[in-house]
Amino acid sequence: MLTLGELAQKLDATLVGDASTPVDGLGTIQSATGSQLTFLANPRYRSFLENTGAAAVLLPESQQDYCPVAALVVKDPYLAFARASAFFEVAPQPAAGIHPAATVDPSARVADSACIGPNAVVEAGARVGEGAVVMANTVVGAGSVIGDACRLWPNVTIYHGVTLGPRTIIHANCVIGADGFGFAFNGAGWTKVHQVGGVRIGADVEIGASTTVDRGAIEDTVIGNGVILDNQIQVAHNVVIGDHTAVAGKAGIAGSAKIGAYCLIGGAAGIAGHIEICDKVQVLAMSLVSSSINEPGTYGSALPVDKQSRYRRNVARFRNLDDLARRVSKLERSSD
Amino acid sequence: MLTLGELAQKLDATLVGDASTPVDGLGTIQSATGSQLTFLANPRYRSFLENTGAAAVLLPESQQDYCPVAALVVKDPYLAFARASAFFEVAPQPAAGIHPAATVDPSARVADSACIGPNAVVEAGARVGEGAVVMANTVVGAGSVIGDACRLWPNVTIYHGVTLGPRTIIHANCVIGADGFGFAFNGAGWTKVHQVGGVRIGADVEIGASTTVDRGAIEDTVIGNGVILDNQIQVAHNVVIGDHTAVAGKAGIAGSAKIGAYCLIGGAAGIAGHIEICDKVQVLAMSLVSSSINEPGTYGSALPVDKQSRYRRNVARFRNLDDLARRVSKLERSSD
Amino acid sequence: MLTLGELAQKLDATLVGDASTPVDGLGTIQSATGSQLTFLANPRYRSFLENTGAAAVLLPESQQDYCPVAALVVKDPYLAFARASAFFEVAPQPAAGIHPAATVDPSARVADSACIGPNAVVEAGARVGEGAVVMANTVVGAGSVIGDACRLWPNVTIYHGVTLGPRTIIHANCVIGADGFGFAFNGAGWTKVHQVGGVRIGADVEIGASTTVDRGAIEDTVIGNGVILDNQIQVAHNVVIGDHTAVAGKAGIAGSAKIGAYCLIGGAAGIAGHIEICDKVQVLAMSLVSSSINEPGTYGSALPVDKQSRYRRNVARFRNLDDLARRVSKLERSSD
């Protein structure tokens, strides 16, 4: 629990209201109760503001007059709310120590302040840093390095030869360092290319549940600092993702693709292998990037849904689009 | 093993044949043996019916005359087959009790009739209901509630603050309650919005393998009663899915999308964030719903494959489709 | 460590250089060091060849003259490199034996030469073959059969009734044998069709991380010999995949689809249910196969990205493509 005065100080906000009012949680602007903090980022929601029952609202100066309760005036209310959210986190913080049901190889080095949960496994030569948390049933492969203050949620698999920078969060059931999809055709079938590279993940990265990041074929797969990956993303071998790039759920990035910094990759987008995307490119949801992008900006390709009858007719026409274009050219020639 | 007479009674079917014939399993209409039950739902397969070697066939009255073996006459053969399938389930039913290799926090409450498998972990304050099964290596987070007769298959991760209604089935390696993908840009990088909402899942829900359902940012992510989700679906934070909606494999539902009841969402379909889909909407496979749908019916957007040469030509034309349309308008004007 | 002479012999290569040179690893042609082996498969990279610092290069005879270091001349350098990669594998090879923290049912049969890792679970009646490795926290369901020399990485879930042929590799967090998505609508909701089939996976198969293969509804789901599946693929119930077919990451194959041998299915491609694809078909990334393909060749349907402004205009035109085609027909009629 924090008072509004304490919150104003921590968030560098100007408080309009009673500094002693206690806040014990977060709420939406429509449903926050009298002990909860909320925010107004979009002026469209002003009617909600005018009726909010929150203890206080993080808002920009322009909206202050419409606030019926205490206001915490800031430049960027959503960012301030993000900062405030850390004070009201509900996730349990496990205590340091190795659970008796964990299996830690004698050659592994686990910091005294780290937490190793029940049935977690830390294999030979692995290192777990200060304050790191390896939760229940997670496996840290041989020789891998879990940086200080990292958190690995349950059922994560970290293969051998993976390095995580400090403060990186890996959500449940992720797999980091599985073999890349490398095979040579031998005339009758596939000969495996053993994947001897590793994975290097930077500091302050967050990786969503069930995302997979493959190890490199020869050199490492690399994820930069501050990258955020959502759930169920596939990052193939030797992909490089630049610092602070955000990738939404279910995107797939094929082998050796190189994505710049500060990119925004939409949900279920596909990035082809061996291409480069420069910094500050936004790819819309379900779009396919099949060749390199050298200019910042927004790119898309997915068609949105239509009613089935019209969709079916348009699809049938698409099948003959080249023919249609030729017919138009012919008409143009004959009308000249 | 059941006799045809017992089956007829349980399924409310009219038996044409010997009530004492034993049935010990299920078969397809082409390959069922003389002790297996099968069904005919589609009259197209009548030739298979005429040659079936099954013990008995669930079929509608209209097909009865073509059945060379015993018939169980019902209105809806596929539904009757579904009901019958429960009698021949092959999945092991684990016995009640806490396995010695499980880790159950002293503050958790586990019903005596529940089963907690080896290496399963039940964290502080969690509750596991009567007859519920938590299989090997599954983790139930702090304070979460597993309803009566739920079944959690192995390697599932349930985070803290998740509630499952009774009789809900969660297949292996699902993740329920991981953090939603919420971040505020701070000018240099991303500040995490701690996700303090939970997940509420109704009764009689079934969730396929490796599906992920994120916890809400502030309020809960909600899945209604009787919802069925296939494998590898991503349900983002604060999504609401109405009762009895079915979602096929690999679909992705972005944050705060609200899907009605009795919808059918096709495989690998994408639903954008912050939109609403009304009841009884069908979305075809691999389609993108990028704005709200207010009218029941079927919607699609995916293009089906074509031979590479024609596909490439049509794609090239699509790239200039706006130009083509302008050229057609010009021709129309000049032909007036 | 191997000498170039030993490598030449093992790979059936012609060595041009000093047979006693030691090689202790693999490198890319740009960055290999003086103790590493590399390869040149594509003549486009000849400039890298001319500057390589590798110990030796696997290359075709045509490139031999441009090689500044030792050459191992072969017909297919990439295939030779694949074979060589096995000699430099970095994955730990666990020792035989059952870890004290594993849980093996007394009725299961585990070969003496097999390895069962910590917290792995082998259920009643299951069998684990000679030299097979079941890594940490993996579960082998009741009655399932793990062939000789298979390797199951951590956190894999094998349900009951699954059979893996010899030398098959299953990467971390895969789920094999979860229930197929079978439900009958009962007027008010969904009645589960209990899935009583199993899964049969052939020999020398490799399945990438977090891929799911559902059990059959009545008969088995079948994956042929030598099939290679990448990460996060969904294989629905009763799918059949022919020998040596390769499927890239995030593809989805719906129920009862039958895919031939030697097919190449691209990343995030979707295959509809109940269709057949003949042998030697290539499906491009993110394409939708919604009807059967009876002719070998390459097929695609995905649109590649464009700049947002042009993309939006073209999408709007696509919505009226049928109308545009009608307008062109009308122009043609009036110009006759």
From TrEMBL, chains A, B, C:
Active site (record annotation): 237 (proton acceptor)
Gene3D superfamilies for this protein: 1.20.5.170, Hexapeptide repeat proteins, MurE/MurF, N-terminal domain
Domain named UDP-3-O-[3-hydroxymyristoyl] glucosamine N-acyltransferase non-repeat region: residues: 22-86
InterPro entries linked to this entry: Hexapep, LpxD, Trimer_LpxA-like_sf, UDP_GlcNAc_AcTrfase_non-rep
GO biological process: lipid A biosynthetic process
A family per Pfam: LpxD
Record has Lipid biosynthesis as a keyword: yes
First-level EC class: transferase
EC numbers: 2.3.1.191
Keywords from the UniProt entry: Acyltransferase, Lipid A biosynthesis, Lipid biosynthesis, Lipid metabolism, Repeat, Transferase
Domain of life: Bacteria
GO-annotated molecular function: N-acyltransferase activity; UDP-3-O-[(3R)-3-hydroxyacyl]-glucosamine N-acyltransferase activity
Reactions the enzyme catalyzes: a UDP-3-O-[(3R)-3-hydroxyacyl]-alpha-D-glucosamine + a (3R)-hydroxyacyl-[ACP] = a UDP-2-N,3-O-bis[(3R)-3-hydroxyacyl]-alpha-D-glucosamine + holo-[ACP] + H(+)
GO cellular component terms, semicolon-separated: membrane
Metabolic or biological pathway, per its Swiss-Prot or TrEMBL entry: Bacterial outer membrane biogenesis; LPS lipid A biosynthesis
UniProt family annotation: Belongs to the transferase hexapeptide repeat family. LpxD subfamily.
Role played: Catalyzes the N-acylation of UDP-3-O-acylglucosamine using 3-hydroxyacyl-ACP as the acyl donor. Is involved in the biosynthesis of lipid A, a phosphorylated glycolipid that anchors the lipopolysaccharide to the outer membrane of the cell.
Record text on subunit structure and interactions: Homotrimer.
Name of protein: UDP-3-O-acylglucosamine N-acyltransferase
Native source species: Alcanivorax hongdengensis A-11-3
